[in-house]
Structures are given as structure tokens and as C-alpha cells.
Design a protein that fits this description.
The protein is α/β, with parallel strands linked by helices. It contains 3 helices and 8 strands, in the order E-H-E-E-E-H-E-H-E-E-E. It has a single domain, classed as Roll (2,3-Dihydroxybiphenyl 1,2-Dioxygenase, domain 1), CATH 3.10.180.10.
């Protein structure tokens, strides 16, 4: 068994698709109608057959409440691995990304946290 898709609740699928593809650099894998919404998944350009990130609409009241509360408490919704946190931090700053935590060493891991503009905090980590 392996993880093939992981979901991330977003407030606006189109805005999220733009941010995750144009700003972060993920590549669109699927974008198909799914009722009133879309099934939009992205993959890392470094692992095109790897785990897909599903941009899940937060239309359900429980999803909205969950997303709002973890954001308010400063809890990242997910984590992405990067080769060099400081380099990625600088690259994303240049693209206008708002960080809530600058690169910080935590033992053997260096992390940083940013706002994805779609209702989530996202952590990047370098081991």
C-alpha cells in the first residue's frame, strides 16, 4: 500500500491552482469537472509519477471550520520537502509569498512556514 493522493482544503480552486503551479512550481496532473467543482491534482516536477496533491474545495462546513481553526492556531495543513529551505525561502519571497516563520533550525531539520493565500499555512522542510 502507498499514498497516491493527499488532499488539501482550499477556499478557491482556481486561485489555488494558480498559486501551487505558478508560484510554487507544481505541475497540473488532472483537472476534470466533478459536479459543481473540479478534480484538480498537482505533482512535483521532480516526481511526476509520485503522490498527487488534490486541491479539495472546502465547501463542507466541517472542512471550513477545520481549515479556519488550524490556520488561526498557526498549524500547517501540510509539509513539502525541499533540498535547501533558505534558498526556497528566498525564491518564494521574491514571488511575494508571505512567510509566518522564517527558516528555523529544529534539531536536524530546518523549516519555514508560509501562507498559501487559499486558507492554509504550508511548512517546507529540509532534513
Amino acid at each position: 500500500m502507498k499514498i497516491i493522493v493527499t488532499s488539501l482544503f482550499v477556499q478557491d480552486q482556481e486561485k489555488a491552482l494558480e498559486f501551487y503551479s505558478e508560484t510554487l512550481g507544481f505541475e497540473k496532473r488532472h483537472d476534470v469537472p466533478a459536479g459543481e467543482f473540479r478534480w484538480i491534482t498537482l505533482v512535483s516536477p521532480d516526481d511526476k509519477e509520485g503522490t498527487e496533491l488534490l486541491l479539495e474545495p472546502n465547501d463542507h462546513p466541517a472542512a471550513k471550520e477545520y481549515q479556519k481553526k488550524i490556520f488561526a492556531d498557526g498549524i500547517p495543513a501540510t509539509m513539502f520537502g525541499v533540498a535547501d529551505v533558505r534558498k526556497e525561502y528566498e525564491r518564494l519571497l521574491e514571488k511575494g509569498v508571505n512567510f509566518t516563520m522564517e527558516p528555523t533550525e529544529m534539531g536536524e531539520v530546518t523549516i519555514a512556514v508560509f501562507d498559501d493565500t487559499c486558507g492554509n499555512l504550508i511548512q517546507i522542510a529540509q532534513k
